[in-house]
Write a structure and sequence with these properties.
Layout: H1 3-16, E1 22-27, H2 36-46, E2 49-53, H3 64-75, H4 80-89, E3 98-101, H5 104-110, H6 112-121, E4 124-128, H7 138-145, E5 150-155, H8 161-170, E6 175-178, H9 194-204, E7 209-212, H10 218-225, E8 230-233, H11 235-242, H12 247-253
Parallel strand pairs: 1-2, 1-8, 2-3, 3-4, 4-5, 5-6, 6-7, 7-8
Helix pairs in contact: 2-12, 6-7
């Protein structure tokens, strides 16, 4: 099985079991560098897919929470190389599919072919790159495909229909449906017309569609889960962890009651 297929198959399997899949985001090395492996294991035990954020100096798609976590992680010495080494050297590596969410500069600086090799060796299943436009993603996609790694593409409520089809066709693992035309963590309520938007994406995608940006409650997870194949939770989880509260308990609280 290709690594990108592991992501899609996991989402479908969880969905078929009657649960809404949770895709959880944490910033690598935050809030404590020395707890990264333990934090990752805990999140993996309570989520179905995990995104590991690679800290970057200018996270343009992220709100203040992830900006703050990135700045602190960078100050503590976290880098792409450090993350891959930590994953490679982990004892009892999590079985949950892992994605690296990174801006493009650190990936290019690392080298795309080397990145594909080292990510596969570290157990990574794919990448999300918010500032990599679809039209410029060919070289990155080719390098990742060599190791069967996913390149998850992002769409928004204002993505035109023709481009939506192109982006969905090019995506692997899942399609990331951003719920608002803005930054992470900013929304307090689900936007009007979201259900129609998600159904529009699902109608043209042959792989699962996961929705994120601003998800904070079980009610939101339940509402989005009626129209998407998975729900992405980021800033709210990072805030939970920086308060020293249980990541696992928070993720469990997002599961709609059966």
């Amino acid at each position: 099985m290709q690594r990108h297929e592991l992501i899609s198959d996991t989402l479908r399997s969880v969905r078929e079991s009657g649960r809404v899949p949770l895709v959880a985001f944490l910033t690598a090395g935050y809030p404590r560098v020395d707890r990264f492996a333990d934090d990752l294991r805990e999140v993996c035990a309570h989520a179905d897919i995990v995104e590991i954020g690679v800290p970057f100096t200018d996270p343009m798609a992220d709100g203040v929470t992830i900006q703050r976590s990135s700045e602190a992680a960078l100050a503590a010495g976290v880098s792409l190389s450090w993350i891959l080494e930590q994953l490679r050297d982990m004892e009892s590596r999590p079985g949950t599919p892992l994605l690296l969410m990174s801006y493009l500069n650190p990936l290019l600086a690392y080298g795309l072919d080397r990145l594909a090799d080292d990510a596969a060796a570290a157990g990574v299943s794919g990448f999300i790159v918010p500032d990599l436009p679809f039209d410029e993603s060919g070289d990155f996609r080719v390098s990742m495909q060599r190791e069967g790694l996913a390149l998850v593409q992002l769409v928004t409520p204002i993505t035109p229909d023709e481009r939506l089809r192109q982006v969905c066709d090019a995506s692997s693992g899942f399609v990331y449906a951003v719920t608002v035309a803005g930054i992470t963590g900013g929304a307090t309520a689900l936007p009007e017309g979201m259900h129609d938007y998600l159904e529009r994406v699902r109608a043209v995608s042959t792989i699962p569609v996961c929705a994120g940006f601003g998800i904070r409650s079980a009610q939101q997870v339940s509402a989005i889960g009626e129209h998407a194949d998975g729900v992405i939770v980021g800033s709210a989880l990072v805030e939970t962890m920086e308060r020293g509260e249980s990541a696992g308990a928070f993720l469990d609280s997002l599961r709609p009651a059966s």
